[in-house]
């Protein structure tokens, strides 16, 4: 059964997935099946600690939130620190997920937490729908610097394994230097939508940090962020085993937890070349460890 028949009535919040496009939904299903390695709670907490969440009324996004582990833990911590947090404070927290069933699950988990915290069912549903945006972060996500914190575990998938239909959508919006892997495209977009002085805490596969194919990406990112923390993770405990994966078969990735700190300087975008330039006040420690 296609996602269309299973989820044609999904509430989509701010943005609209094209539910009339079966081919697009099948492509999303294929990417989700290949990339849905959900992060285990201790690793999520470790990254939220590194981001010092929830101090300071900052805006946090998980750009590929899956079934919502980062969102749920961030929300729980926010509610523990500020039990009477109003809608505005709660909506500082958001997640994007383009796979409708995963987005529905994330919304349900957020909704449950809000009800437990004393919200009415109706309020909780509305907030959860706004908080979890069911749409493609690469084609519909923000391009301007609007987040103080970005947390999550972006999809890792080499370009050749991305369905053609999605590749054609991404090619016009993803710069060449970030086109080799979905992870590169997400890293680039995350850095671009980070406010000056913001921080990004992610689980990623390690290959972008050293592989020759990531050199141009590292050179670009290194203009705007520095690696503030880097730690190897154990693939057997960093991820929650997907239901489709047999037990005892850890994912074939070498995960790391990485904290990128925005250099906090002003940079200007060269529209002609599609690259970013900045004036630096201090020598950058490039994202090129
Ligand atoms: C590695 S999982 C991580 C989920 C969650 N952040 C976590 O750590 O548990 C990556 C998720 O990204 C989603 N995804 C892949 N490409 C996406 C895109 N272009 N826009 C939004 N979500 C996407 C996948 O469906 C998958 O659920």
TrEMBL record:
Q: What is its EC number?
A: 2.1.1.72
Domain named Type II methyltransferase M.TaqI-like: which ranges?
142-219
GO MF terms, alphabetically ordered: methyltransferase activity
Q: Which reaction does it catalyse?
A: a 2'-deoxyadenosine in DNA + S-adenosyl-L-methionine = an N(6)-methyl-2'-deoxyadenosine in DNA + S-adenosyl-L-homocysteine + H(+)
Keyword Aminoacyl-tRNA synthetase among UniProt keywords: no
According to its UniProt entry, one GO biological process term is: methylation
- Entry keyword set: Methyltransferase, S-adenosyl-L-methionine, Transferase
Has the keyword Nuclease been applied to this entry? Answer: no
InterPro entries with a match to the protein in the record? DNA_methylase_N6_adenine_CS (IPR002052), MethylTrfase_TaqI-like_dom (IPR011639), N4_N6_ade-DNA_methylase (IPR050953), SAM-dependent_MTases_sf (IPR029063)
SUPFAM superfamilies linked:
S-adenosyl-L-methionine-dependent methyltransferases
Family according to the record = Belongs to the N(4)/N(6)-methyltransferase family.
What is this protein identified as? site-specific DNA-methyltransferase (adenine-specific)
Q: Which organism is it from?
A: Chromobacterium piscinae
């Amino acid at each position: 059964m296609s996602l269309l028949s299973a989820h044609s009535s999904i509430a989509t919040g701010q943005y609209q997935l094209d539910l009339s496009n079966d081919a697009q939904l099948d492509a999303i299903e294929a990417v989700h099946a290949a990339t849905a390695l959900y992060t285990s709670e201790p690793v999520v907490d470790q990254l939220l600690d590194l981001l010092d969440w929830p101090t300071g009324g900052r805006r946090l996004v998980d750009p590929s939130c899956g079934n919502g582990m980062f969102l749920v833990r961030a929300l729980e911590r926010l509610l523990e620190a500020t039990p009477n947090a109003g809608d505005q404070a709660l909506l500082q927290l958001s997640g994007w997920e383009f796979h409708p069933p995963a987005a529905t699950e994330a919304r349900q988990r957020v909704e449950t937490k809000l009800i437990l915290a004393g919200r009415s069912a109706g309020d909780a549903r509305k907030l959860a729908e706004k908080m979890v945006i069911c749409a493609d972060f690469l084609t519909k996500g923000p391009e301007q610097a609007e987040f103080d914190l970005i947390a999550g575990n972006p999809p890792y998938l080499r370009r050749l394994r991305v369905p053609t239909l999605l590749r054609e959508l991404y090619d016009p919006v993803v710069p060449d230097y970030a086109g080799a892997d979905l992870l590169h495209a997400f890293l680039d977009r995350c850095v671009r939508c980070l406010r000056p002085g913001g921080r990004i805490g992610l689980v990623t596969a390690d290959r972008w940090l050293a592989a020759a194919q990531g050199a141009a990406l590292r050179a670009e990112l290194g203009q705007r962020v520095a690696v503030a923390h880097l730690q190897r993770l154990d693939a057997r405990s960093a991820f929650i085993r997907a239901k489709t994966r047999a037990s005892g078969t850890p994912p074939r990735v070498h995960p790391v937890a990485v904290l990128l700190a925005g250099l906090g300087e002003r940079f200007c975008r060269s529209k002609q070349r599609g690259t970013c330039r900045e004036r630096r006040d201090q020598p950058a420690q490039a994202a090129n460890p």
